[in-house]
Prior knowledge:
The chain is of the alpha/beta class.
Amino acid sequence: MNKDIIIACATDDGLTFPDKHSGEAKFFMIYAINDKKHELITKIENTTPEERMHGDPQKAKGVVGILKKKGVDVIVSKQYGKNLTRIKDKVVPVIIGAEKIEDGVGLCIENIEQIRNELIKSGKERKHLKFG
């Protein structure tokens, strides 16, 4: 079996994806997923500073920094801003159509081979994925 993939789901309430950019979410729910199951690892607060301007590169660096400390491979959110191109160098961004985090995690499991295919690419070649 392939190793687990660590995903971070952007959220304000721990249950749903907010209708805003991933970096504006209050929290990230961190899950380990594989072909068959998922496990919640932790919930972390988004402690990055407010954007100074739209698409602030420091915001992207801050979000990726806190997620990489938790071993995150994939970030899952309903929306991304201009920083989408910056974060894909470090993590695979997934745009999710689901409202509930549980459904979004399920979509990631269903599409895990697509995620694995993006993870093996270099950041410059990597594309964002869209599920749901």
